[in-house]
Every structure is written in C-alpha cells, then in structure tokens.
Amino acid sequence: MTSPLQLLSPDQHLGLGLRPASNWAFCKTRDAVPIALSEFADLAGWHPIVFSTGPVPMPLAVLGTQQGQNNFLDMSCQWPAHHEPPTALKLHPFSLGVDAADAQRTVVMVDLADPRLVPLEEDDAAQPLFTFDGKPSPTLSSITQRLGAHAFALKEASALGLALQQSGLLEDMHADIRTPDGTTHRTRTFRSVSGSKFRNLATSELERWFRQGWTDAVALHLSSLRRWVQLYERQQLHVKALASASRAND
C-alpha cells in the first residue's frame, strides 16, 4: 500500500488547497504525541506527560489510556473547545522530512489522506498552498515557518530526554487506576523520572539543568502524572456515549 505521506512540491500539488478543519478525526487513534518543553506548562493540567521508550526518550502528552485511542475527542471527533491541542496535532497534515538527495536539507511532507486537502476548484474556502507560478503561498510559508520552529523545539525536548536517560533518572512506568468498583485499569508502559533519584542529582548538574529550564520541565512532568485518573474518566465517558449511541440506533 502506498503511504499517503508525500513530498510537497508545486510539480505535483500546484492546485492543492487547505480548507478549514471540520473535526479532528485524523488523530482519533493517537494515544500520545511528542511535545516541546514550552508546551509542558499548558498541557500538564490536562495530560499526563511521560517519556517514550527507545534510545532517545521524547516527552509525550498522553491522549488516551489505551493504545490507539484518543480520549479527548467527543462522538463527533471534536476537540474540547476550552483546551488547546498539542502543536504537533495543529500542524497536521504537514510535517518535516529529510531531502532524499541532501541529508542536510529539510523538506515539507504532507499527508494526502487528510480530507482538508482538496483541489482548489472543489472548495472556495480552501487556501492555496502554491501561487500560480509555483511559489509557496503565504499559507504554506506560514506553515513551513511553524514546522521549523516546532522541529527545533522538539530537538531541545529530546536533549532533555537524553540527559535524563544518561543520568539514570528514567524508569519504566505504567499507571494502575483503581475504579470505584474496586477493579484496576493498567495503561501501557511509558517512562517517567524517578523523583527520588532526581532529588539526589549532583548540585553542579542540578544548577546546569536549572539554567536550561529542565528542572521546571521535570517538576511539571511529575505533577502531570496525577492526570491519569482524569484521563481514565474521559475514557469511561466515551464508552458510555458509545453505548448510548448504540442503544439509540437499535
């Protein structure tokens, strides 16, 4: 099967436009998304912030208690009106990739499966991605700038993850959520900072981390782990809504 992710180019996509989003269905199977350090403060009030497994742990905002499920979307795939989505989701269907001919050059990739991408003649509300002569439109120029800024911010976030791993501060974790009926729900495995080990970090290292803003990020990460229960409550509300819709259709 051909991947919907393609290099965006005027040769292939001159007449392509981006129309306003009607819903967030594209991310309904996303249960976590990479985030930048600057997003910790806003997202920690709603999402557990954890770290990915692998050689370079990335900070992640958790969207769902189960793999492949986003608990922040309602039955119409709408995001909560009072809550700002993570930047990576706001930038979809665009992302940065590496030029196949020049590994030092980044290129804009686009997910052509996204229904917001349409031929300009099909929707008057769609904003062109290229001008008639193949130059990036103001819309695409703005998107490219935001992609670059976010990619740089994610590199800073990955530097924190790597430092945590090299310092031996990360440990595998999963959340065990006890429900009122006494049953326990276990999430999939992520990684989190060991609070006790972090408090024993050498003073010189702690001072360096403080100057880089990493101590604030770790504190927000640890505080956000209390959000697992709220996330599970969202998941339960979604299950009840699905059951009600099923009964209504019977």
Automatic annotation (TrEMBL):
Pfam families: SapC. It comes from the Bacteria. This is SapC family protein. It comes from Ottowia thiooxydans.
